[in-house]
Amino acid sequence: MNVVALSPADLMIAASLILLLAALSLRLRLGVERQLLVSAARTTVQLLLIALVLKAVFEFARLHWVALMAAVMILAAGREVIARQKHRLNGWWGYGIGTVSMFVSSFTVTVLALVAVVGNDPWYAPQYAIPLLGMVLGNTMNGIALGLDRLTQDAVQRRAVIEARLALGERWQEAIADIRHDAMRVGLIPIINAMAAAGIVSLPGMMTGQILAGSPPLEAAKYQILVMFLIAGGTGFGTMVAVNLAARRLFDERHRLRPERVGSRG
After folding, report:
1. In 10 A of CB 14, how many CB atoms?
2. HSE-up of 215 (CA within 13 Å, CB side)?
3. Fewer beta carbons under 10 A from the terminal one: N or C of the chain?
4. Confidence band (pLDDT; 50, 70, 90) for 239?
């Protein structure tokens, strides 16, 4: 496969679009120029650093190095799940539920794919394990974050309704059932939209990257289908686990709503 190498000048041409966008934001007083430039700088630094780390991991392909990198990725994703939620569970619960849910879903789904589908030797080969985990983890994180945000926000806004249901004798599972279902549905919307639009509205990233690297389009499509199904499974299972654990945390053993367990950002 012949890959066209990009020079620093090529990347500078692409970066000029960000600078132009920031200038327009400043001119139109949109107020997002700083976030745009900071995000672009973070993207550049983070991707270059991870490229150096991956180069080292690929050269010394040992299970403990792959496991360490996977652990760091999951812990960082757990922090991102709660970073932008308006209402979040107090203490370590918000971070803990998000992290555990992603470990249960993303890690399990990725290991299943490596062992039962890809069948590489060794099964933890970092060239396959890290990219697969990264793609599943990134999308699962979005689904869990959306689901938890919807659950806590609705629980705060509809507190009176929940407490009225509890006063009528309903158990906590019944009092918050519709809110819980809405939260799980919201968490699944992004991946459902992505699967519905794949191939018609958009060419997903992995397939695009493989085609740019010279892979046959049919093989690239097979890998992309595999990844989309893994992401859907990880997102679905992760969101369901996270929403159910968080919903349980909103009530005590006597089925009383505990609003003090949810805090507001800022």
Report:
1. 10
2. 15
3. C
4. very high
